[in-house]
From TrEMBL:
Name the UniProt record assigns to this protein: Antitoxin
InterPro entries on file: Antitoxin_Phd/YefM, YefM-like_sf
Known role: Antitoxin component of a type II toxin-antitoxin (TA) system.
Record-stated family: Belongs to the phD/YefM antitoxin family.
Taxon lineage: Bacteria, Pseudomonadati, Pseudomonadota, Gammaproteobacteria, Cellvibrionales
Length: 85
């Protein structure tokens, strides 16, 4: 992934818009990574993956509830305490 510093990204914004159509571009500020710019199509794809993953986790939680695979908060805390000891 190409990396630009923030001032270069600002100065070359038009070119940056063209670059992100083919690959994400990282942006650093003061030598530290602060952002990644990507195409709208890639963003939509990532958002779709995130939504699908969230739905799968919710469905798993519902299945666990229906199957009785749950524990109270107190039970969970006690199990954690026992692991730490």
């Amino acid at each position: 992934m190409e990396i630009l510093n923030a001032s270069d990204a600002k100065r070359e914004f038009g070119d940056l818009l063209l670059k992100v159509q083919s690959a994400p571009v990282g942006i650093n500020k003061n030598g530290k990574p602060v952002a990644v710019m990507l195409s709208y199509a890639e963003y939509e794809q990532l958002a779709g993956y995130k939504t699908a993953q969230l739905k799968a986790q919710i469905q798993q939680g519902i299945a666990d509830l229906e199957a009785g695979r749950i524990a109270s908060g107190n039970v969970v805390l006690e199990r954690l305490r026992q692991r730490v000891k």
